[in-house]
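User: I've been trying to design a sequence by hand for this structure and keep getting stuck. Would you show me what you'd pick, starting by listing the structure so we're on the same page?

Assistant: Good idea, let's start from the same input. This is the structure you sent:
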């Protein structure tokens, strides 16, 4: 399959997944695409990290998380977008007038790779490798999928932008975790806990359940806000 056929496939898939006639889903996706709505979950993650590690190690983890986001974002936005210069669907003269948009939002000029996908998947990969619990991994990647699918729904990224952005994020998250693991083995003496009480060497199940509940409450809030948006638009 040549590159032109891949581009045509990507455009067709975007038009199939983009937008809807539902005011509710427009509101849901518009709210879910915002990083701010997920802030409580991020704060709970920071709480778990600092509660279960001595301050110096917790600080190292936070620095590594910052490095994950910085690298993922810079590779996507600072290198790939200007290098490939692929217009977003909302700026692509071939299909821009076929794309459904919400609240007039079209994003910047270029979309490959998706920095949303790179950032969310890099953090999800790093944190999943850190905690190593299936339920936690499921929740983290559920967040990544929801957060990045909104970009397709809103018409500001092709599925290919998201796919390659996610792949970049997975690689960055894995490599930074390897760096973290090497540093923490040199800098800290590990304390071992009972496997029945702890999901790893550091994180109690009770703390992770707090994160799961927070995630569910955020989804519920987005759902209710989506209903609110639909209601007021139909008034």
């Amino acid at each position: 399959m040549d590159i032109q056929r891949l581009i045509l496939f990507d455009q067709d898939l975007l038009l199939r997944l983009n937008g809807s006639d539902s005011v509710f889903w427009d509101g849901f996706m518009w709210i879910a695409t915002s990083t701010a709505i997920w802030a409580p979950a991020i704060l709970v993650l920071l709480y778990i990290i600092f509660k279960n590690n001595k301050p110096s190690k917790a600080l190292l983890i936070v620095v590594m998380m910052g490095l994950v986001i910085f690298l993922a974002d810079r590779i996507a936005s600072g290198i790939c977008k200007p290098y490939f210069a692929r217009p977003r669907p909302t700026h692509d003269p071939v299909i821009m007038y076929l794309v459904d948009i919400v609240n007039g939002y079209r994003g910047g000029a270029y979309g490959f790779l998706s920095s949303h996908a790179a950032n969310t998947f890099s953090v999800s990969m790093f944190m999943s490798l850190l905690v190593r619990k299936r339920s936690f991994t499921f929740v983290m990647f559920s967040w990544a999928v929801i957060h990045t699918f909104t970009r397709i729904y809103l018409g500001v990224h092709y599925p290919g932008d998201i796919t390659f952005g996610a792949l970049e994020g997975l690689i960055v998250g894995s490599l930074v975790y390897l760096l973290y693991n090497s540093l923490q083995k040199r800098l800290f003496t590990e304390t071992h806990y009972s496997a029945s009480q702890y999901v790893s060497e550091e994180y109690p199940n009770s703390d992770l359940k707090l994160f799961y509940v927070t995630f569910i409450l955020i989804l519920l809030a987005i759902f209710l806000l989506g209903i609110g948006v639909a209601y007021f638009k139909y008034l």
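That's my pick for every position. To get oriented when you compare it with your attempt: The helical segments are 3-17, 23-32, 39-51, 55-84, 115-131, 134-153, 159-187, 205-234. Residues 192-200 have pLDDT under 50 and may be disordered.
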